UniProtKB/TrEMBL annotation:
SMART domains: HATPase_c (SM00387). This is histidine kinase. It is an enzyme of class 2 (transferase). Its EC number is 2.7.13.3. Its main location: membrane. It holds the Pfam family HisKA. It is found in: Cell membrane. It catalyses: ATP + protein L-histidine = ADP + protein N-phospho-L-histidine.
Length: 410
């Protein structure tokens, strides 16, 4: 199992290191090709100047001036030169180790004047390029080390903030550094409040039933006490009264047995349920390459969990069944207008189909062709719940473009 610290420090460091090394590698390649191209051009230019001057001075047989020029040139440019006349007698050379092998004939107006060999590898230009290459890498490494130190300090600080935020989840009056964790905290707190409300409604309902049972029990007890103490004659009317009170208790017992807290309405934020529901069935929608866009605002509605689940289930899966692959379904909850809107990019419906649906269970021929399954009861369940909540249902649709189901809560 991965840890947050490992994610923020180890994993990020690995990623940054890989990116850095890749960047340095690419920069070195680019630097090498660029500088090598410039180096070759500059060497060619310098060699042409050296060749032309050597040929010019050799033509005038001004060897003393030529020697001074070559000495000056080798001193200024740190190059190795060996020049021989046509009899291959050395005129000038600083190639003390005799490493130069490739000689080029020196001509002036087609007249052979001698032979010259030059090595620019040890020149100042070559050294400058080498130092530039080393400097680029050293600077990059230093900047990278400094950047990694700053990143490490930053990640450690953020890791501390993140851990503190996680420790403060579901703690009242907490201050958070990350808005996403704060939102999670708010959702969890709201869910907890909703669970408490639901439990309160359930307990209130139990107390109400218990109170309803207490009254007939009290009547029966009074009758039985009076009969036992012979303060009351056992007449038919007395037994009929006891029977009536017993029936009342028996009618209340099923409410205990069949009572399901999910059917009890309470004020809850429908956006929290929608968010959980959409994420729960995310993989089902991905199987059809359908994406779900959630635009959720807090909206408090007095509704039971069971009705809310039925409502969202029928609206969302109706949109799923009649949507084209690679399309989008949008679920919007608007606090100001108190509206729940589910819109899709499916096959859409004609106005005639909408009228028939509002009358009762109905499926058009296009719907049956697109999706063989279904009974047309889905929207009828939605209508029943909307009616029960005293809300308003509106259906807007365009054939070939999709449908939009809107519920206006009171």
């Amino acid at each position: 199992m991965n840890s947050i610290k490992n994610l923020l420090i180890s994993q990020i460091f690995k990623i940054v290191l890989i990116i850095f090394l890749s960047t340095i590698f690419l920069l070195n390649i680019a630097f090498y090709f660029f500088t090598n191209n410039q180096f070759q051009k500059e060497i060619a230019r310098q060699y042409d100047e050296l060749y032309n001057m050597t040929a010019h001075l050799s033509t005038e047989e001004n060897f003393e001036t030529l020697i001074v020029y070559l000495e000056h040139y080798t001193h200024n440019n740190d190059v190795t030169i060996h020049f021989k006349n046509i009899t291959e007698q050395t005129i000038f050379s600083n190639d003390f180790d005799a490493k130069l092998q490739n000689y080029e004939a020196v001509y002036y107006d087609d007249i052979l004047l001698g032979y010259i060999a030059v090595n620019f590898e040890s020149s100042k230009l070559s050294k400058d390029i080498l130092y530039g290459f080393i400097g680029l890498n050293l600077t990059s490494i230093i900047l990278f080390a400094f950047g990694m130190y700053i990143l490490y300090k930053f990640l450690r600080n953020e890791n501390t903030k993140l851990r503190l935020d996680l420790n403060h989840i579901e703690t009242e009056s907490s201050v958070f550094s990350y808005k996403e964790i704060k939102q999670l905290h708010v959702q969890l707190m709201n869910s907890q409040i909703q669970r408490e409300k639901q439990r309160s409604v359930y307990e209130s309902h139990i107390k109400s039933i218990a109170h309803d049972i207490k009254t007939p029990l009290s009547v029966i007890r009074i009758y039985t006490d009076s009969l036992v103490n012979e303060k009351l004659n056992p007449t038919k009317e007395v037994f009929l009264d006891i029977q009536v009170e017993t029936v009342k208790i028996m009618n209340l017992i099923p409410k205990f047995i069949e009572l399901d807290y999910v059917e009890l309405p309470y004020i809850q934020d429908v956006s929290l349920f929608i968010n959980r529901y959409a994420n729960k069935y995310k993989e089902i929608f991905e199987s059809k390459q359908i994406s779900i866009t959630l635009e959720l605002e807090t909206l408090l509605v007095n509704i039971s969990d069971k009705d809310l689940e039925r409502l969202i289930e029928h609206l969302l899966f109706n949109a799923f069944y009649y949507s084209n692959p690679q399309s989008n379904i949008t679920i919007s909850v608007q606090n100001k207008t108190r509206r729940l809107v589910v819109s899709d990019e499916g096959i859409g419906m004609t106005s005639e189909t909408i009228i028939n649906i509002l009358k009762g269970p109905y499926r058009s021929e296009e719907a049956m062709k697109f999706n063989e399954k279904g009974s047309g009861l889905g929207l009828q369940f939605v209508k029943d719940i909307v009616r029960k909540l005293e809300a308003n249902l509106q259906i807007d649709s365009v054939v070939g473009h999709g449908s939009k189901i809107s519920i206006q809560f009171s």
